[in-house]
Amino acid sequence: MGNELQHRTVLLDEAVESLVTRPDGVYVDGTFGRGGHSRAVLARLAPAGRLIAFDKDPRAIETAQRIEDARFSIVHDSFASMRDALAARGVEKVSGVLLDLGVSSPQVDDPARGFSFRADGPLDMRMDPTRGESAAEWLARASVQELTEVIRDYGEERFAFQIAKALVARRAESDRLGPLDTTGELAQIVGHVVKTREKGKDPATRTFQAIRIHVNQELADLQVVLGAALSLLEQGGRLVVISFHSLEDRIVKRFMQAHASAPAVDRRLPIRAVDLPSPPLKIISRQFPSEAEVVANPRARSAVMRIAERVTP
């Protein structure tokens, strides 16, 4: 079975139904993955509709290039490049933007990609292995302070400082032991430090998440693409975001709330509510996977989908 068949798209019908409000509109899938959402969007589009997808993963690009549909195009880049990439294609406004955040099952399940602590593999973790610094390269140079901040802030790991010290101590042994360049050894080091066990969670989970987020600039890119999406959406256009952990969801929630609220004004000032600019967004809903979907796909358990609509021109 091919990798693209192993990935189960989360909240597929719910996301596409929320996204596509104009069958003849221009839509963006910011995270093509293995194409589940993109194919479902194309099935709902009219002949005049258009879908532009983004992905950093070369394997995702290979899958996308097999889609033979004149309405579809793929961009091999981060969704953070959305504004410039669409401008280069003559697109000024879109009818909807979909972001399915996180790592796809084929990425996690392939030890060669270095995302998982469950099977030993090279310590890479890049969404695009052809660009940027790998996890092993970053770990070979990062200071205790930088390691601590990344593991604490992106992994919400309370043993961040102890893990950072252990990683730097291991680096000091590189002449004797060789470089730290496998997921198995990283997981082993973290496991020796983190003595407490969360039910159903490997002690390396938070550290691996933190390093992956840092290596791929996931949260920084998310901040950028949310701003780009807001500026690109036409009136009535939808922003649909599926998050898989609290750090992502917090950013999305705060962004939508901030742009769906009227600006705060000192009550003592002689300004009427009608004189204030209208907020550009309206929050539509928040949705979670059904029990049936979670049973069929346990990785959907942590997913939350937030939907907002552009209400101003």
Task: Give an overview of the whole structure.
The protein is of the alpha/beta class and 313 residues long. It is built from 15 helices and seven strands. Strand 1 (26-29), helix 3 and strand 2 (50-55) form a beta-alpha-beta unit. A seven-stranded mixed beta sheet has the order 3-2-1-4-5-7-6, sandwiched between helices. The model is unreliable at 1-5 (pLDDT under 50). 42% of the residues are buried. It is globular. It folds into two domains: 3-105 and 218-310, 3-Layer(aba) Sandwich (Rossmann fold), CATH 3.40.50.150; 123-216, Putative methyltransferase TM0872, insert domain (DNA polymerase, domain 1), CATH 1.10.150.170. Helix content is 42%, strand content 15%. Helix 9 crosses helix 11 (183-193) and helix 13 packs parallel to helix 14.
Largest sheet: 7 strands, mixed
Shape: globular
Give me the count of strands: 7
Main sheet: strand order: 3-2-1-4-5-7-6
List the defining traits of the structure above.
313 residues; alpha/beta; Rossmann fold; DNA polymerase, domain 1; seven-stranded mixed beta sheet; 7 strands; 15% strand; disordered N terminus
Describe the SSE topology.
Blueprint: H1 3-6, H2 12-19, E1 26-29, H3 36-44, E2 50-55, H4 58-64, E3 72-76, H5 82-88, E4 94-100, H6 105-109, H7 135-139, H8 144-155, H9 160-171, H10 174-177, H11 183-193, H12 205-216, H13 218-232, E5 233-243, H14 246-259, E6 281-287, H15 291-296, E7 304-310
Parallel strand pairs: 1-2, 1-4, 2-3, 4-5
Antiparallel strand pairs: 5-7, 6-7
Helix pairs in contact: 2-3, 8-9, 8-12, 9-11, 13-14
